[in-house]
């Protein structure tokens, strides 16, 4: 095996830069990190989600004026729920139940009141 002599500094328009020797180990380390990152994205569902959104954009008959806004909108729908949003949804459901109960109570009270008062038409005739 012959040992490689260090590269002389390269000059560009009067400036000199040291050229680092590139080895296969350097490429393998970079590829390894890329592969680890790709596996991470795949396991976490990022690649699948991005693929689905990009396919939806591709299949969109009327292409949006801003592809970035399309991606943001469709990715926003896929994000996990914020705990505050979940609390607001629960509160909204409770309020809807209370509203429905109030409407029912109102109907019952109107019916009860109608028993004790003459109909509106008779009042107008008087």
UniProtKB/TrEMBL annotation:
It comes from the Eukaryota. InterPro entries: AMY1 (IPR026060). Transmembrane segments: none annotated. Its main location: nucleus. It is found in: Nucleus. GO terms for cellular component: nucleus. Keywords: Coiled coil, Nucleus. GO terms for molecular function: transcription coactivator activity. Belongs to the AMY1 family. This is c-Myc-binding protein. It comes from Octodon degus.
